[in-house]
Amino acid sequence: MKYVIIGAGGTGGAIGGFLSKTGKDVTLIARGNHLAAMKEKGLHFETPDGDFTVPVKACTMEEYEETPDVVFVCVKGYSLQDTIPFIKKIADSHTIVIPILNIYGTGGRMQKLIPDIPVTDGCIYIATEIKEPGTILMSGTIFRVVFGLRQGTSPQIKETVTPVLTTICHDLEESSITPILSPQIEKDALQKFSFVSPMAAAGSFYNAQAFVFQMKGQFRSTFISLIEEIKAISDAMGVSLPENIVEINLKIMDDLAPTATASMHRDIRDGKQSELDGLVFEVIRLGQKYGVPTPVYEMIAEKFR
Predict the structure, then answer these.
(1) Residue ranges covered by each domain of the chain
(2) C-alpha radius of gyration, the chain, whole number
(3) pLDDT digits (tens, 9 = 90+) for 152-191
(4) Can you name the CATH fold of 186-304?
């Protein structure tokens, strides 16, 4: 299996680094100082279980000339469109594309843009960020990748793609990454979104780290209200999240390092381009589409509008 990881940040770098550590054929697509550092010294990880460095193959989109079996797309939502010409150039009909983004519904949108290449949906549970060029900081031990084919996928594509997805699971598992090949990926991806969107929205609104949401009070109540608004939208969509989704997401929040923040929060804080549209405004648009009020999301959106 030949893997390409588009985007070598906290998510893509972790997937590519851990796969590379066990000898898988992986190329990380990156740029700038981060790419230069990886080429010179490899990819360094700081984790709760200890630090290590992995030699990795890394290059720019322009430099890559192979045809991969698997493409993990791990960019920010606002950069997704930039990956489409590259995927069209390197992929063929046997290549499988697995988007691992914070934004809900990415796979379906990508499939319309590259109709001849199988695209799954996917999400990830991990707490990582680029600490400095060539170094990824992991602030937790959870490393779980969830992916699968959407409902309505043709039987022919299922028959062709499923054995490859099973092999990907095997490769991930060998690399100390927990894989989940989901038969209900729309629900699983929305469930992940129901955590990362409220965390990003509330963290950005209050400019606060995880510890303020781990204590009872206004901050935690806002986080809960955002989850409840997404739960109401999911019910209206017919992709109902678990009834105890608030408790599930509070457990995830409470298990985070006290200093943890969402990448959108960090980008806004640092004056960078952010995923505000996909993580906040998209919820409001979904609420309008399905007739569900989203007053807390509206309040947060108004601050950044």
Answers:
(1) 2-183, 186-304
(2) 19
(3) 888 999 999 999 999 999 999 999 999 999 999 999 999 9
(4) N-(1-d-carboxylethyl)-l-norvaline Dehydrogenase; domain 2 (1.10.1040)
